[in-house]
Amino acid sequence: MEMTAQNESALACAAQKGDKEALQLLLKRNWGWLKGLVYSVLTDAQELDDVLQEVCLRVITRIHTLREPERFRAWLATVARREVLKHYRRRTHEKVPVNPGVILLKLDGYIRDPLQDAEKSELCSRILEAVKTLPEKYREVFVLAHTGELTYAEMAEVLDVPITTMQIRLVRARRMVQNQVIGRTDIRCTNDERD
Amino acid sequence: MMNEINDRLEILIGKLVDGEISPPERKILERELETNGQARELLEQLRSLHQQSCQAIAAEVSGGASADDVFERAWQQNAKSTYRRVFRFDGRMRFAIGLAAGLILGLGLHFVAVWGSKTPMQLTQQREVAEEPAAVGGGPRGVQPVGGSHPVTGEVDWYVYTSPTGEQWLVEGVREGLARTADYRGKPRPM
Q1: CB neighbours of B78 closer than 8 A, spacing ≥ 6?
Q2: Tell me, what's the ipTM?
Q3: Helix (H) or strand (E) holding A10
Q4: CB distance from B5 to chain A under 8 Å?
Q5: What's the CA gap between A80 and A52, in Å, rounded?
Q6: Helical residues (DSSP H) of chain B, grouped into ranges
Q7: Cβ contacts (< 8 Å) between A127 and chain B: which residues?
Q8: Residue contact B59–A61, C-beta within 8 A
Q9: Which stretches of A48-101 are assigned E, i.e. beta strand?
Q10: Residue of B nearest to A31 (CA)
Q11: Per-residue pLDDT reduced to its tens digit, B83-139
C-alpha cells in the first residue's frame, strides 16, 4: 500500500500509452479498496467479480481519458461507482436477496463450525445488516475505513470530499452502525446530517 | 455544544482506532480519557466495533477471483470487443451494402436476360444482314427506302424490298449497323 503519488502517476501515464503491465499493476495496488467501494455501493458480495470485471474493462477502454494521472484513484472511484450503478440498474429486476448468515460462514477464508462461531457470526451479521441500511455516503466511508487499505487522506481523495467531511461521515456512520448493532433506536445525527 | 464536544471526541477516538491520530491529538485524548468514563467506554465500544467490522467486511469482499485474473479476463474481453467493433456493421452500413449488392445483382441479371432473350440463330441472321445485305436476296438494288406515308422513326430506317419472286419485305435497318426483318407480305415461304 506504500505507493507514492509519483509512482501512481507514472504508472497511470504508462498505462495511458498502452502499457498493459503498468495498468495491471495500478489496478492490483488499488484492488483492496476498489473491492470495498464496489461492495459498499452494490451491497452484494456475490456479484462483486462481475462488476469488478466491468470496472476493469471500463478502465482499460477509458484510461486515455484520464486528464490528471496523479488523481488516478479519484478517477478510478468515479468509474467504479458509475459501473456499479449501471450494473445495479441492469440487475434490479432480477436481483435475488442474499442471506447474510450464509456469507458469514466464510469468515477467515474457510467454512467454520456454525455453533462455535454463532455469537461472532451473529454480531458480524448484525454489523453487515446495519452497514447495508446506511445511506450510501456513510456506507462508502464505513466500508473503505474497514478494508484497512487507505489512510484518511486517501479515503478523502477517493470519495472526492475534504478530509474533515470524510472524518465526520465516518464518525456518524460508526455511530449509526453501533446503535443498530446494540439495538438502540435513538440514532443520533440522522436528522442533522450536514457535512 | 454537547454534541460538538462529543463529535470531536468521537473523531479523536476514531482516529486512535484507525491509527490516524497525531501526537498532539493523542495527548488531548489521553487527558480526556483519564477524566471521562463515558469516553473510555466509547473507546472500548468503537475498538470492538472496528475489529468486528473489519472481519465482517473482509469476509464479504475477500473471496472471489484475484485482481490479475479479473484484469486478464477484462483484457481478453476488450480484445474481442475491439475485433467486433472493427467488423461490426450498423444498420445504415448494412442497408448500404445490401443496396449496392442488389444493384450489382440487378444489373447482372439485366444483361443476362437481354442476351439470353436472343437465340444464336437470330444473332447470326442479324449479323449476316448487316454485314452482307446481298444475303437477303438480290443485293441492294431492289431495296427502296420507305418514305411518304410510311411511318419512319428516328431510331431505325425502314426499307421495302421486293424479291425477284415477287415477295415483298419490310426491312428494318437499325442504325447500329444491323438489319433485321420486320415484316413479310407475300406467299408463305417454303421451309
Answers
A1: A57, A60, A61
A2: 0.75
A3: helix A5-16
A4: no
A5: 8
A6: 2-18, 23-35, 37-61, 67-86, 91-117, 120-131
A7: 49, 52-53, 56
A8: no
A9: none
A10: B67
A11: 666 556 667 788 888 999 999 999 999 888 877 776 666 666 655 555 544 545 544
